[in-house]
């Protein structure tokens, strides 16, 4: 296998007896077949989305006849209320990411750079919290938010239900654990000399956190921010639970309602699904490296 | 927490080993008491995240346990009545959906463990070789990982539809009485949902294993290769055991994903009619007709107890090297 030789020089490649040039025909055939199977569901949705309903009615969905255009996208965008949904996603996602990274970086700093009695126990508590299925705490959280009395000028439900804040709180609380775990591993690996020098200078804890440790954590923070962006954007559950007004739902939860709105118009439903994919694809293309780094950061410290 | 101190010497074993042998023997940890303002700062840094974590994760979890022993319609707090084990007795003996849900959760786990996870591993091993277009293949398999499970449900809905879905066209049954409604027919829909879940899970596992494979010391593989081991032997005897930390993570992720499975079935039919899952039952009892918070919480507690198994395994593996 070429994997076993790739870091070797030409000489040892001969010694091992396999060249890098082995063609791997079988592997390629397998991978190509798998790739096609992998792309079919998405490809079919895109294909359906690009065809006018009239044409699919006339020729059938499994045909090539008729026009291909973006009319369904335009219709789905306006009829489906996408501008509002994207706005809601933004209102929920951005504050959540900022809160999660702020809270988890402070906690990670406190458990990894300062020694105190319960720091490992606290880290375990935080890590475990993120591993629970959200449904385990859904009911009490729902009731807690329902019983929170708020003035009506602040929330038209008189409680935390049906507000963006409820979703932001739930997502923040749930994601802090994961980010704390990842960041504390990252901070632990930074040399102790860094803060040593600051100590000699008499710098307080806050300065060590804000001016020394955090700037060094930029790669990890960037990776986590990307990962959380996808996680929160893709979150379906918390808005489903807390938000009753359709016009306050973020995109991911709202697309489920499109099945009712675009009743049996599969072309529009497909277009709606594709519109929802677009932001993720953009993030994927622009920040793929960060995203993958974020995913693997969490698992590399097994 | 009462006497926080600052570590001014590397406390990791590696850090200590790095000290020159001739260095004077000093206490491994030179600590100093924190100043008063530092204590306030530290209290804030720990207190605020901990408050959020306790208030919105752990207290609700404990309240779930509490509510599972009560009878409550979810209206006024004063309506809460003690119920003993009545909710659990109902769930185990009388709830029509509970045992199907348990079976489906187990099936979900087995399917992910036997099909989706090994498929992800296979893809990772194939793509870890220096083959042409490895990055392109990786991108293809990775796309579903970026999508929400709710969207995965909708995309597959279009693929699985009875009369207009691609699958029935490919099988030649579309429009005929033999056409299968893949997400609607209770005898097949769990399998259809599992294929959709695999589509996403395999890519996730692939990415994690690709990172794991890069971390395996190449000289290990070479040594095995030089000793005449073939590719399969090298993989199963050398590479796979060397990835033990990642393997644990993958096992835990697979179990937890199968317990968390919710979005796909909720998008399809709210977890009914062949797609019952414990997680979906919790929500059904919370928002359904005639709220039975106690019964819903009993489902939540069962889910919690099962989840604690993989969580404990993972935490004890991860933190066993740490000092308490």
Give the CATH H-level superfamily of the domain at 101-275 in chain B: MetI-like
User: Regions of chain A with pLDDT < 50 over 5+ consecutive residues?
Assistant: 1-19
Largest interface, by Cβ-Cβ below 8 angstroms: which chains and how many residues each? A-B, 118 and 133 residues
Rg of chain B is 26 Å
CATH class of the largest domain in chain A reads Mainly Alpha
Q: What CATH architecture label of the domain at 101-275 in chain B applies? A: Orthogonal Bundle
Q: What fold name stands as the CATH topology of the largest domain in chain A?
A: MetI-like fold
Q: What's the name of the CATH homologous superfamily of the largest domain in chain A?
A: MetI-like
Multimeric organization: heterodimer
The CATH topology of the domain at 101-275 in chain B? MetI-like fold
Global structural class of chain B:
mainly alpha
Tally of individual domains of chain A? 2
H/E element order of chain B: EHEHEEHHHHHHHHHHHH
Major beta sheet summary of chain A: none
Largest sheet of chain B, if any? Answer: 2 strands, antiparallel
Q: List the total number of helices of chain B.
A: 14
* Mean residue pLDDT of chain A: 85
Level-1 CATH class name of the domain at 101-275 in chain B: Mainly Alpha
